[in-house]
# Entry
Amino acid sequence: QCITQSTGSMDLSLEDVKALTDSDKIQEIFLKLREQEENVTKDLDKLLKNQAHLETKMKNLNQILPQVASIEKGCQSLHDKIHSTNLLAENVSRKVRQLDMAKGHVDSCIQRVNDIINLTKCVEGVQETMASDNYETAASHINRYLQIDKKLISNIDDDVDGSFAVLKDAELRFINNLNNRFDSAVKENDEKGVDRFARLYPLVGRKEDGLSKYSKFLASKVASRGQYHLTNALKTSKEDKRWGSCLLIH
# Structure
């Protein structure tokens, strides 16, 4: 049977050892074997010294394992709670959206009811104020009528279309009368009247018309005053001291 012994860089079988006859060779091999033995002994000593440290670590690990298991259980419980909370939040969010939709429908219905009430008041108000020549109040009624969305309430009441027709006719008659009153105030040079009626155009959706008519009035006033001062200046003698002051002032 062949037994192999590791001797550093040499491997000798039992037969090789028995065959050794040179004392120097035997001494050399002996020294190498002793050196190897010492190295093995040192390695064993190191392992024995670290044994206590390893055992302490293992003991600590054994103590931590139950805590790790407890933490894992707690994490799972927390995960379940978070999942449950998420489901609850989604459910609440869905109900809130449903409530918002319901509120939107209710608000729309309330708005339609208010529009119908306003429409009725506008019809009555325009007819009364037009008869009493109260242009400011009539304009406010027409303004309320213009804010109403006809499409939203046309299918609710059978009288809606008729009311809109009455108000449309009243609107046209009011604008015609407003134009006549504005033009009359311009001809009469009634600045207060012009200012009064010019303010009503935006209320009845004719802002551009009002600006155009009022701008023309202002332009005519400026032209008229310029012509007046120019005529007076030409009539004044150049030798008159008032000539210079007239030019400076006017």
About this structure: Residues 91 and 247 are 83 Å apart (CA to CA).
